[in-house]
């Protein structure tokens, strides 16, 4: 047993020494990027898939758990692949040009986005829409910082909130098919299902009756 413990400690010392080697830093950063992408993707998707599946999807418990596991795996895998691809391409470009420039980030992310998130499926669609909203906010702030747009005299957020809610509810009421399926499900629950009830049970306790009354 003692010999096994010594071997393990020696292995850990060798691994720690390898991690301190500067010449391997770029490759190791790619590996850790893969690890962090996988972990973060699972942390983000698992609770979201759990809530959305049990709120809006029908089927057996086994089918629901399988759906949650599949969504979590897909998100985790894609993010791990993207982060490692991005970091690998960043390291390669920096090595080839001898320095890091802003275009490297854009180019590496474009290639990673095309390869990893280019398939139009529910998981990728949600991620892209999430990023799009952040990009629009970020570009708006950058335009003000750079002086391309004058600094607003009043906080524009109330107007933005009004326009966004007005637009999304108009789309839901009259062009529902244009909205992403999970958003349709959420809005159906909030705005359509709240128009229907039969008695106190499906007015306060349940959303819909399951009996044949």
Automatic annotation (TrEMBL):
GO terms for cellular component: peroxisomal membrane. The lineage of its organism: Eukaryota, Metazoa, Chordata, Craniata, Vertebrata. InterPro entries: Pmp4. Coiled coil: none annotated. This is Peroxisomal membrane protein 4. Pfam families: Tim17 (PF02466).
């Amino acid at each position: 047993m003692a010999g096994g413990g010594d071997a393990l400690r020696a292995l850990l010392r060798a691994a720690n020494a390898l991690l301190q080697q500067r010449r391997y830093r770029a490759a190791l950063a790619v590996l850790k990027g893969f690890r962090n992408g996988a972990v973060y993707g699972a942390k983000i998707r698992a609770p979201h898939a759990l809530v959305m599946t049990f709120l809006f999807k029908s089927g057996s418990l086994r089918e629901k758990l399988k759906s949650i596991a599949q969504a979590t795996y897909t998100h985790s895998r894609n993010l791990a692949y993207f982060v490692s691809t991005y970091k690998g391409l960043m390291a390669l470009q920096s090595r080839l040009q001898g320095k890091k420039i802003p275009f490297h980030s854009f180019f590496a992310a474009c290639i990673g986005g095309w390869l990893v998130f280019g398939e139009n499926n529910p998981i990728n669609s949600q991620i892209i829409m999430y990023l799009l909203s952040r990009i629009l906010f970020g570009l708006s702030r950058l335009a003000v910082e750079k002086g391309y747009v004058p600094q607003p005299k009043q906080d524009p957020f109330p107007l933005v909130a009004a326009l966004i809610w007005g637009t999304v509810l108009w789309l839901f009421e009259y062009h529902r098919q244009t909205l992403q399926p999970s958003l349709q499900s959420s809005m159906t629950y909030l705005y359509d299902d709240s128009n229907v009830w039969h008695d106190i049970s499906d007015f306060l306790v349940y959303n819909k009756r399951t009996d044949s009354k």
